[in-house]
Queue: 2 jobs
Job 1
Amino acid sequence: MIKKYLLAPGPTMVPEEVLLEMAKPIIHHRTSEFSNIFANVREKLKPVFGTKNDCLLLSGSGTAAMEAAVVNCFSSGDKVIVVNAGKFGKRWVEICKSYGLEVVSIDLEWGRSVKPEQVEAALIANPDAKGVFIQASETSTTAYHPIKEIGNLIKLFDSKLFIVDGITSVGVVETKMDEWGIDILVTGSQKAFMLPPGLSIIALSDKAWSFVEKSNLPKYYLSLKKERKSQSDNTTAYTPAVSLIIGLNKVLDTMMNEGLENVYGRHELCALATREAVKALGFELLAKDIPSNAATGFYLPENIDGGKFVKFLREKMGVTFAGGQDHLKGKIVRISHLGYHDIFDTLTAISALELGLKYFGYNFEVGVGVKAAEEVIFKYKVSKL
Amino acid sequence: MIKKYLLAPGPTMVPEEVLLEMAKPIIHHRTSEFSNIFANVREKLKPVFGTKNDCLLLSGSGTAAMEAAVVNCFSSGDKVIVVNAGKFGKRWVEICKSYGLEVVSIDLEWGRSVKPEQVEAALIANPDAKGVFIQASETSTTAYHPIKEIGNLIKLFDSKLFIVDGITSVGVVETKMDEWGIDILVTGSQKAFMLPPGLSIIALSDKAWSFVEKSNLPKYYLSLKKERKSQSDNTTAYTPAVSLIIGLNKVLDTMMNEGLENVYGRHELCALATREAVKALGFELLAKDIPSNAATGFYLPENIDGGKFVKFLREKMGVTFAGGQDHLKGKIVRISHLGYHDIFDTLTAISALELGLKYFGYNFEVGVGVKAAEEVIFKYKVSKL
């Protein structure tokens, strides 16, 4: 018997009560019953996005919403700046290039967070750039970029949009779209929203909507103008992912019930405990500047093959971590703190990590990781109960 | 958000796939569809009981099956020997006395396992005794009694039955009913069979069935003769707990799939890891002679109120342990290893125990319990993967 622990940065575990909600008989989407749920979801998303504007739901994973951001707000030949600090930064580059945009890429070593000054320099060097694309949390490197500070910079330019991939940050850390000057914010269902994949959410500022009017890129399924019209009437342009939206309604209730501050605090605590455990075990964090609270990546010793390590834990011990992507493949491990994840998931992650390390011959004192994690958890949570 | 971890010795956690099986639309019990499932369950139970005889299913919890053992095989005024070493030994005494049996009680300090010589002495002192009642695993003290050895003793007496409460031993440790001379073996659904409570199972040897013919105690719902007749035809005398039986069918498949040896080994491993952790934390095990692999009980320091401790872990941290019963109330904690429980449940249990101990001011080095548990788990499991 192997119990399964899904501790990779998405898809994440789904709460039992949400699974049960989604397992109820399917309802039709062109009904007042669905429209009521849909209206509720749209309202409840706003505080999580930190916006007064519409949060539009798309049936598609996070990449669909990223593409929607590009094709709805830009035109062929537009110059844009992309912070490229990992696999998902690279995805912004690829999407933009696919549609004929001219990309000025701020290339960073994987694991680094961009400095606001670097963005400022790019803006100064490229006065004709129409927007800045970034990840809030770059899932491939588990680094966080200083979104608030960069947003405050870009706010000063009427002619530029600030487009943020919040796929592993919305619902993980406080995100104040309106206040921070984020013009487009996208996220997906399978991360902090603890749902199965298949649903993404996108919100646009008034400035971004003004760009929509000028965009000449081809689009049909991802047309946000059409979605905004339909969704304002609490329906969707095309068939929506009904059960995921019903699940999201339940998830948002549980998040509101827990309190957004507590949701963010829980992610922060599990992330901090994991970072301290990983350091106590003698490893170097992948995120050099600002580690993300969505997941923690670290380098394995050179004599351990990360691919084999992750496979062993998944297949033999039931614990799914993520390995590295692209040039980090086989070199790192990433442990998620996302969504339906509590302190005992973190402690399970660290115990599993220790057992795996011992199996792979790493020389360390068994228990030091868990001890470090328990001390963080005691200090910031249990002692305050 | 508080995730729930049910780590008390029953009810135990139910596997998701079993919950889903039981959530399917209910079927009628007087159908060939149900009879087929019922026939399968009856066959699959036999290796777990270690018997070639019928395993009868009763809709009622374990105590119902205990009562069935008494009322079907004995008569008013019969003398019986009861090994009374905890709350459930006391239950045998109470049931027997309720029906006018004369009880010779072998009273033991809670936490002790009976010695075969003590049973032998009682048999010699009471040649007219008709049976010996015992728990295999006394859940209230987490002690195991040497069933095999006692069975071999009683085998020598044609005129006596050996009645074993296997509620927290069947499915936990190897139990060879026929080979060990057990005449009546009972168990419940909510322990090693990882189901919700409400179903119990009882098997009788040929010798026990011959006692049934002579019993004069009143019975109706618990009449085993009537049940045997119905269940031989793959139906039940009264309405059965349909969904629990369907769940049991699924559970038995998963147990066979895992392999009974592996099921027993898993319980043994989690129990051993917990015992080592508890000892490393400086505590004394409640079970003095033979600790049960179903659960581990230990004494808390005198200045920690066990009731408050268990309540804190359950309500504030989501982790349900059991406290003590009767005179041990407030003094001990019992951690289960039963059923749908794996190494990470054990490690969660130990982490939660450590965090709780620190909260309650116990002076120890955080992490020593988990370290001890991890070392056991590595030695006996992970290193062999």
Job 2
Amino acid sequence: MSAKSHRTSGSVAMDDYLEQILNLIEEKGYARPVDISKNLGISQASVTNMLQRLDAEGLVKHEKYRGTILTEKGRMIADAIITRHQTLTEFLRLFGLDEDTIYHDVEGMEHHVSKSTLRVIDVLLEELKDDSALLQKLREKL
Amino acid sequence: MSAKSHRTSGSVAMDDYLEQILNLIEEKGYARPVDISKNLGISQASVTNMLQRLDAEGLVKHEKYRGTILTEKGRMIADAIITRHQTLTEFLRLFGLDEDTIYHDVEGMEHHVSKSTLRVIDVLLEELKDDSALLQKLREKL
Ligand SMILES: [Mn+2]
Ligand SMILES: [Mn+2]
């Protein structure tokens, strides 16, 4: 298992499922295929197939009364993706980009940001939150 | 045609081909399937298929004595990807990340960075090149 194994599933599609499953569990307490299907804009048949694949990879389990849950490994990947999503979103919001652009860019970038690159973004984010004069100066150059 | 049509082909795989074709033309003067195959680590049969698809999309042409060339539209997309590649690489290098990590992250991110996000990175890059005290301060926090 590679050193990256806790950061991504190795598949952008699987990453997106894990992210949405964790979002749903945190919002609603459970992740139903119908809600995963709606959030990802993917047919229920495809969701069913992917849940089987995630199960085979040891990333989700199906429990009789709780529905789809994340395994420990699935949870770690989902957490890492959501952290990247939040950090990248907060960073781009500093610069006043419109929300659609931010969402679109972040959904793409979040699968490709290593721990080191995330740390760079995080350090910049903290600096710019503390130094409004610098942020203002940068925003005027956009 | 969407406002983004000059920025990406809509397919990560096609983007990567266009990027490599332009790299090869600029390095060697021509882009041969064997070199595309080597640079992308993809079989020559797959390269042949993709070149046909890029031709059908109006992104490359085959000319008898020059081999594969980019159409104007293909060239604009390739230029945009290479600009994103260079800006992202230069930005991450400021922070001393190792070259493998940078290459891997940039190859993923370059397909998902809008013009607005690229502008943010570019403004930060210029600022940090001009303010070595700030860069040093940030690097110490990594
Ligand atoms: Mn996301
Ligand atoms: Mn590239």
